[in-house]
Design a protein that fits this description.
The protein is an alpha+beta fold and about 150 residues long. The chain contains two helices and seven strands. It has a single domain, classed as START domain (Alpha-D-Glucose-1,6-Bisphosphate, Chain A, domain 4), CATH 3.30.530. It has helices at about 15-20, 120-150; strands at about 1-10, 35-40, 50-55, 60-70, 75-80, 85-95, 100-110.
Length: about 150
């Protein structure tokens, strides 16, 4: 298993950052490179473990299912739609920092079924995910800081 984390300091209150992340079906409203997103199942009491969203990015479709939901700090989900030998998950951690600032960490976990090149393949895929994580964090920062400055 390979884990890779990326963090950002965002000039916004933790509740504002959490509000963007917790609107689970609205990823395409703020994330660059996501053409469409929607909830596959709705819940009367908002997002929680088991809720899934569909993500369309170009011709690729992913299904992300919440596995850990602890407002206002942790959001974890598994990602389906990657090559079948891979298990991929993301985990967002939202923590208050200095006044008016929030530290957000996105950790991606990659696990490949056993085969001779497993560790190398996991690391290569994790590096690709790290680039995507940087883009997601950049988009989240832009969205939250625009709202904060408005």
């Amino acid at each position: 298993m390979t884990r890779i984390s990326r963090s950002r300091a965002i000039r916004a209150e933790p509740s504002a950052v959490w509000g963007v992340l917790a609107d689970f079906g609205a990823l395409s409203d703020w994330a660059d490179g996501v053409d469409h997103s929607c909830l596959l199942r709705r819940s009367e009491d908002g997002p929680h473990v088991g809720i899934a969203r569909r993500i369309q990015s170009g011709r690729t479709t992913f299904i992300e299912t919440i596995t850990d939901y602890r407002p206002p700090t942790l959001l974890g989900y598994d990602i389906a739609g990657v090559p079948r030998d891979l298990a991929v998950a993301n985990r967002w951690n939202v923590q208050p920092a200095a006044a008016g600032t929030t530290t957000v960490t996105l950790t991606s976990t990659v696990h490949l079924t056993p085969h001779p090149l497993r560790l190398i393949s996991e690391r290569v895929f994790a590096r690709l995910l790290a680039k995507r994580s940087d883009a997601l964090l950049d988009s989240l920062t832009r969205r939250c800081e625009e709202c904060h400055d408005a």
